[in-house]
Design a protein that fits this description.
By secondary structure, the protein is α+β, with helices and mostly antiparallel strands. The chain contains ten helices and 15 strands. The chain is about 40% helix and about 25% strand. The protein is elongated, with a radius of gyration of 43 Å. The N and C termini lie far apart (about 130 Å).
Length: about 300
DNA sequence: CGCGAGACAAGCATCGACAA
DNA sequence: TTGTCGATGCTTGTCTCGCG
């Protein structure tokens, strides 16, 4: 006996296979109704469970199957509320490394065309990269250094705005107490009453010795290589910082000493501004240093 | 001039997100 | 697990500043 489907006409081996087919036959006019009834009956055999997402800790629901009045918990049951959470990986450095190594190894052994090579246009060195990165960056150079050499002729320059920005920031740093470094004059280390300090040039070293001796003789209370500073306008009316050299405290007063080999136009502007602001400033030239050294019997 | 430090440009590694 | 893309931040190296 032949077992032929009444909806599509296809022949099946047995009557049970035919009955199974005809229920799900795409040409069966009752298939949608059947699907509806089936899902309803399946829902009756599941239990609504509220779970907490492993990643974001928010609540989400699943339907767990019931068999013989027991809940079936499979290893594939959802742990996360969404695909987004499920794909959020928080790898440690070690884990990232092992994943990366594994992927690289697989790709290389499978010879997948993701990887490619290009030659640096400057040093000619061959470098491995991915096709996507080659497309994305239009890679021509193997390193930042080679890229720089390539762009040397067309090198980037600071704009007027960026220059002003740097100028403003550097001035602010000096105004707020940034220390001086570098300079034409050599930095020298000198032993003083309060330990080793660094000063600029031999004039300042000599001033340290003089002030130490004055302190020993109690002519002054103490002195320091100061970080005190004032703001002044230079010859172009630009605001600048002026940093004093030495600060001296006596019983009666506080004053500053500036050592100078020669005077420049801006120096006069600084000193005038210091006096205007009420600071007592003494300038020691070479002859003043020699005079103090003779007076205090200091050998140079 | 020499220094320290921020601005800036561009390459690159890494990671999240997504899909299969 | 494998593959890809885009965003982001780090790195590298130079430019530029103001100070004495």
């Amino acid at each position: 006996m032949k077992h032929i489907c009444k909806h599509c006409g296809i022949e099946k081996e047995t009557s049970s296979i035919l009955s199974g087919h005809s229920v799900w036959c795409l040409k069966n006019p009752d298939i949608e109704e059947h699907k509806k009834n089936l899902s309803l009956s399946l829902r009756l055999k599941t239990k609504r469970i509220i779970k907490i997402c492993e990643r974001c800790h928010t609540k989400f629901e699943i339907y767990r199957k019931i068999k013989n009045e027991r809940e079936i918990i499979t290893s594939k049951e959802r742990k996360c509320c969404s695909r987004k959470c499920a794909n959020t990986r928080k790898y440690t450095k070690e884990k990232s490394k092992t994943v990366y190594e594994k992927v690289s190894k697989t790709l290389l052994t499978q010879n997948i065309s993701k990887w490619t090579f290009f030659f640096c246009k400057i040093c000619g060195k061959q470098k491995k990269t991915t096709i996507s990165k080659l497309k994305k960056y239009n890679k021509k150079y193997c390193s930042r250094k080679c890229s720089y050499f390539a762009s040397k002729s067309n090198r980037w320059k600071h704009t007027k705005e960026s220059k002003n920005k740097i100028s403003y920031l550097v001035k602010e740093q000096f105004r707020k107490g940034r220390k001086i470094s570098g300079g034409k004059t050599k930095w020298l280390e000198v032993n003083t009453n309060r330990g080793k300090i660094k000063v600029q040039g031999s004039y300042e070293v000599r001033t340290c010795h003089i002030l130490d001796e004055m302190e020993k003789r109690k002519e002054i209370l103490f002195w320091e290589y100061t970080n005190d500073r004032i703001q002044y306008l230079d010859k172009n009316s630009k605001q600048r910082s002026y940093l004093f050299d030495f600060k001296i405290c006596t019983v009666k007063t506080i004053y500053y000493i500036e050592t100078k080999g020669y005077v420049k136009e801006n120096d006069l502007l600084k000193w005038n501004e210091a006096q205007k602001q009420g600071y007592v400033l003494k300038v020691w030239y070479k002859k003043d240093l020699e005079k103090q050294e003779r007076r205090l019997n200091l050998s140079v």
